[in-house]
């Protein structure tokens, strides 16, 4: 009995200590600002993409600025409650939080999706990707992951049930490439594709509008995952070093948030074109964003270990020992300047500083400082926006061209798709209600065209093709107002 | 027991009681108090139920969740003339002035938002609050410390952002400046001075809207910029786009829509039996453009409940449909009816009744608002609408290629609604 009591007391003590640790250990914590950096990058990407024109062709004449209302009554109760709570958490200052009437501009919904991708923040555990192994965030064996989930319990990031069921965040996550396809991810590619189709095919106008909102949110969510492939910590499996050193979040991300905010981020360059969705992230040709980021930049936890030196230590020895401590093959060190001592030097690659180091006389210390962060940001941010714009264009690469020819409508599969799919045609009546035109289901090839005769009284004709080609699955949509 | 924990936590957080002045500026120093006071409380509960290990953890979590947010250090000063840091919670006050003349600006919309975050390592939005006001004749604004702060579970107040908007001026944000987006360092919590620069025709409305952000109040005030911004996205230069929808109307462009033939004072009197005079003008909530016009029959020396308002959008069939749906969604107590046109609706807000209808093929939406002292019977507003429709052939509607624009925000139901 006494032994049991002691055991209970010991357990309690441990729990209390963990609780106290959780309470004490994040003073002045600085958040990774998905509310600013992700939002701003997504704004730049959306602006550089073809989304405005695509929306205008789908009966949303204001395109990116089209006001769209989310219909919460189309969600089941749990889904509605969860999404509403997440939307309510968004900062109104960003402009992307919908109003109390559930209305926001089309571009705002995409940006909101990018911010919701990390709301709650533990979702970000699924944004990691090692482009070489394809793995996501993984931590070595031990109790640290469990300890972290215990800390999250006190921070509101985990529930007791999650803890008991083993589903709490324990420094492990799905790889970014798995996450964007995971059915449970409400901001993934499947959700985008389904709702992009529903935005054309559903009967009621409100339901179509709400489906379009869900598709745009999912687009933003997928873009946010890709944007993190432009953050070295996310492609170097570096949660512990980058995010947990002082619980302050990543110092690099803080730097970006402080210096650029949401509105000061650089514009996207030309949108990047890649053969498929995965290759925007990682590919054998090394041109995925994660490949490019991983091989060019260090993260806080993957810099070389400090090297102790003595009077007769040679520079080559310091270089060798520093290289041996590296977890990833590149970037790497070939030479260091160790004189004069007590002076900060930089390792520069491809014209930008990637690592700072100092010789204190007894050791060579490596670090990332603001000068390195400034060069990283200058290089990476426009590139991230270009990749995100490219991914957006890729997901919207197919469209249906619908032209009126007398009393008929010609439907042609256009865009950059290599294979066709099944075409469905819908007729809209005067009330805005749509129904599928029976017998209009046909297979449509790229560049192929079929003619549809709308029934009398039809106000609009809409069509959708769902297919798959080497670039992955696609949904092509189009509509036309009848004379 | 839970109540005890809650009370103790509350005691540790005078912030929750609105007593910010007695609370330490550094919110973190409340933690030791909580731990010292509450661990013994939990300890007692564990003694009474020693097997409930997870329950105990849950207790501790519940305890933390009952506490108020940690307030991070503000990046701005308490006043313009001091280096002492401000308080993210507020209160905030200041004055909005014209950047050239330094004169106070009335009618500027001032919105403040508080962003709360949580998370360890990975951090993200947890909650947000917003308050908005409008400057008076002296240009002054004041925002109080918000009530109902989100509680516990590691929530931290991360940011406060002030957004100021007034038409014909460049918007002002406390965190960055337009058009470069560079960080702003001249914001102060109290005695803040917001100098608004005049809008230049070469500036981009689209970029301005992206920069602006803000919640519903700001969005409503800036709604007129959506049309020129949309034209910019379609390839128009900012200067051309600005001329197109709103500013052109101020200058009396020949292309502006003119709906004056639709309804006359005598026709209103004939329907409602009103014997008084009207001052006829335009509604103030939106400027006339080539696709929009309004009429305001303001009853002389009478309250607004005697006024009649008429708004017309001639924007093409697709956009007109969207606009009608928007009215149906936004006007108070709006109900779809089939009394006129391709679709119609009735609405009711306070002492004002509303009616709108869609003429799909002509790409026109008409909306009437009528005070109940004027339209004392439901049939009156319908008769006014039919009169207006009968005169539509007398109005020169824009050509189809110049249409396709929809206002972002719906007008108020009130006949004389102000911007």
Secondary-structure map:
The complex is a heterodimer of chains A (483) and B (419).
Chain A (H helix, E strand, L loop, with lengths): L1 H23 L9 H15 L2 H7 L9 E3 L7 H12 L14 E3 H11 L27 H12 L4 H6 L10 H4 L9 H13 L3 H24 L3 H4 L3 H5 L7 H10 L16 H5 L7 H8 L10 E2 L6 H10 L19 E6 L2 E8 L3 E5 L2 H26 L2 E8 L2 E8 L5 E8 L5 E3 L5 E3 L4 E4 L7 E10 L2 E10 L2
Antiparallel strand pairs in A: 1-2, 3-6, 4-5, 5-6, 7-8, 8-12, 9-10, 9-11, 9-13, 13-14
Chain B lengths: L1 H11 L17 H19 L4 H13 L4 E2 L20 E7 L10 E10 L5 E11 L5 E4 L12 E10 L6 E2 L18 E5 L8 H8 L3 H6 L4 H8 L4 H13 L14 H8 L5 E4 L10 E8 L8 E7 L2 H14 L4 E3 L5 E7 L2 E8 L4 E8 L6 H13 L29
Parallel strand pairs in B: 1-6, 2-8
Antiparallel strand pairs in B: 2-5, 3-4, 3-6, 6-7, 9-10, 10-11, 11-15, 12-13, 13-14, 14-15
Helix pairs in contact in B: 1-2, 1-3, 2-3, 4-6, 6-7, 8-10
Provide a brief overview of the structure.
Chain A is α+β, with helices and mostly antiparallel strands. Chain A is built from 17 helices and 14 strands.
Describe the structure in your own words.
The complex is a heterodimer of chains A (483) and B (419). Chain A contains 17 helices and 14 strands. By secondary structure, chain A is of the alpha+beta class. In chain A, strands 9, 10, 11, 13 and 14 form a 5-stranded antiparallel sheet that branches. In chain A, strands 3-6-5-4 form a 4-stranded antiparallel sheet. In chain A, strands 7-8-12 form a 3-stranded antiparallel sheet, with no helix packed on it. In chain A, a hairpin with a 2-residue loop joins β4 and β5. In chain A, α5 crosses α10. The longest helix of chain A has 26 residues. About 3% of the residues of chain A have low confidence. In chain B, 27% of the residues lie in helices and 23% in strands. In chain B, strands 9-10-11-15-14-13-12 form a 7-stranded antiparallel sheet, with helices on both faces. In chain B, strands 1, 3, 4, 6 and 7 form a 5-stranded mixed sheet that branches. Chain B has a 3-stranded mixed sheet with strand order 5-2-8, with no helix packed on it. Chain B has 419 residues and is an alpha+beta fold. The N terminus of chain B is likely disordered. Chains A and B meet through α1, α2, α6, α7 and α13 of A and α2, α3, β3, β4 and β6 of B.
């Amino acid at each position: 009995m006494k032994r049991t009591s002691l055991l209970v007391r010991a357990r309690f003590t441990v729990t209390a200590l963990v609780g106290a640790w959780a309470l004490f250990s994040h003073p002045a914590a600085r958040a990774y600002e998905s509310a600013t950096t992700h939002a701003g990058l997504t704004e730049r990407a959306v602006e550089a993409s073809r989304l405005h024109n695509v929306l205008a062709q789908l009966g949303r004449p204001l395109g990116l600025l089209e006001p769209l209302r989310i219909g919460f009554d189309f969600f089941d109760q749990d889904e509605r409650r969860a999404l509403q709570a997440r939307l309510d958490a968004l900062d109104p200052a960003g402009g992307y939080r919908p109003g109390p009437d559930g209305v926001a501009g089309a571009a705002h919904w995409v940006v909101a999706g990018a911010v919701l991708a990390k709301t709650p923040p533990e979702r970000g555990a699924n944004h990691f990707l090692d482009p070489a192994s394809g793995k996501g965030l993984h931590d070595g064996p031990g109790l640290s992951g469990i300890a972290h989930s215990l800390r999250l319990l006190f921070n509101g990031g985990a529930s007791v049930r999650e803890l008991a069921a083993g589903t709490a965040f324990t420094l492990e996550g799905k790889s970014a490439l798995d996450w964007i396809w995971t059915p449970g991810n409400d901001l993934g590619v499947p959700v985008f594709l389904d709702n992009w189709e529903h935005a054309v095919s559903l009967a009621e106008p409100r339901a179509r509008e709400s489906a379009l909102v869900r598709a745009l949110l999912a687009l933003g969510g997928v873009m946010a995952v890709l944007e993190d492939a432009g953050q070295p910590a996310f492609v170097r499996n570096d949660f512990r070093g980058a995010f947990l050193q002082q619980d302050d979040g990543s110092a690099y991300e803080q730097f970006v948030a402080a210096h650029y905010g949401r509105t000061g981020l650089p514009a996207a360059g030309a949108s990047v074109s890649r053969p498929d969705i995965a290759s925007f992230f990682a590919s054998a040709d090394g041109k995925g964003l994660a490949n490019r980021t991983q091989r060019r930049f260090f993260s806080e936890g993957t810099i070389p270990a400090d090297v102790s030196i003595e009077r007769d230590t040679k520079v080559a020895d310091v270089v060798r020992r520093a290289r041996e401590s590296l977890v990833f093959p590149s970037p790497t060190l070939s030479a260091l300047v160790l004189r004069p001592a007590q002076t900060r030097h930089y390792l520069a690659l491809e014209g930008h500083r990637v690592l700072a180091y100092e010789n204190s006389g007894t050791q060579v210390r490596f670090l990332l400082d603001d000068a390195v962060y400034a060069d990283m940001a200058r290089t990476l941010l426009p590139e991230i926006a270009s990749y995100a714009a490219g991914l957006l264009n890729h997901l919207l690469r197919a469209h249906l061209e619908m032209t009126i020819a007398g009393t008929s409508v010609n439907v042609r599969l256009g865009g950059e798709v290599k294979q066709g799919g099944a075409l469905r045609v819908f007729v809209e009546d005067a009330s805005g209600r749509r129904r599928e035109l029976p017998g209009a289901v046909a297979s449509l090839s790229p560049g192929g065209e079929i003619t549809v005769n709308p029934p009398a009284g039809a106000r609009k004709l809409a069509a959708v093709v769902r297919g798959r080609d080497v670039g992955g699955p696609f949904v092509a949509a189009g509509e036309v107002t009848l004379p | 027991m839970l109540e005890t924990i809650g009370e103790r936590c509350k005691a540790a957080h005078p912030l929750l009681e609105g007593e910010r002045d007695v609370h330490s500026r550094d919110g973190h120093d409340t933690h030791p108090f909580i731990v010292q006071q509450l661990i013994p409380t939990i300890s007692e509960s564990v003694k009474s139920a020693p097997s409930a290990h997870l329950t105990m953890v849950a207790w501790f979590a519940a305890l933390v969740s009952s506490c108020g947010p940690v307030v991070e250090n503000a990046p701005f000063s308490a006043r313009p003339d001091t280096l002492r840091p401000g308080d993210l919670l507020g209160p905030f006050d200041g004055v909005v002035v014209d950047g050239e003349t330094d004169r106070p600006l009335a009618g500027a919309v001032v919105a403040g938002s508080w962003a709360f975050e949580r998370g360890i390592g990975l951090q993200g939005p947890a909650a947000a609050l917003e308050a908005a006001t409008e400057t008076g004749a002296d240009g002054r604004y004041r925002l109080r410390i918000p009530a109902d702060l989100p509680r516990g579970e590691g929530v931290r107040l991360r940011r406060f952002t002030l957004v100021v908007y007034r038409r014909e001026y460049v918007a002002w944000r406390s965190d960055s400046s337009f058009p470069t987006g560079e960080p702003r360092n001249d914001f102060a919590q109290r005695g803040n001075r917001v100098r608004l620069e005049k809008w230049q025709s070469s500036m981009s409305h689209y970029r301005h809207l992206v920069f602006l952000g803000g919640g519903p109040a700001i969005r409503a005030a800036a709604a007129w910029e959506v049309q020129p911004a949309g034209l910019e996205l379609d390839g128009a230069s900012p200067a051309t786009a600005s001329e197109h929808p709103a500013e052109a109307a101020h200058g009396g462009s020949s292309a502006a829509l003119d709906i004056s033939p639709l309804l006359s004072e005598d026709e209103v009197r004939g329907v409602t039996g009103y014997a008084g005079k009207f001052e006829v003008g335009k509604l103030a909530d939106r400027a006339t453009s080539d696709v929009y016009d309004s009429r305001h029959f303001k009853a002389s020396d009478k309250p607004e409940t005697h006024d009649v308002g008429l708004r017309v959008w001639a924007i093409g069939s697709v956009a007109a449909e969207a606009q009608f749906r928007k009215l149906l969604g936004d006007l108070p107590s709006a109900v779809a009816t089939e009394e006129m046109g391709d679709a119609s609706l009735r609405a009711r807000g306070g002492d004002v009744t509303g009616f709108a209808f869609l003429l799909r093929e002509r790409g026109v939406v008409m909306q009437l608002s009528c005070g109940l002292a004027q339209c004392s019977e439901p049939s009156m507003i319908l008769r006014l609408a039919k009169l207006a429709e009968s005169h539509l052939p007398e109005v020169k509607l824009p050509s189809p290629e110049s249409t396709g624009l929809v206002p972002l925000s719906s007008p108020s139901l009130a006949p004389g609604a102000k911007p």
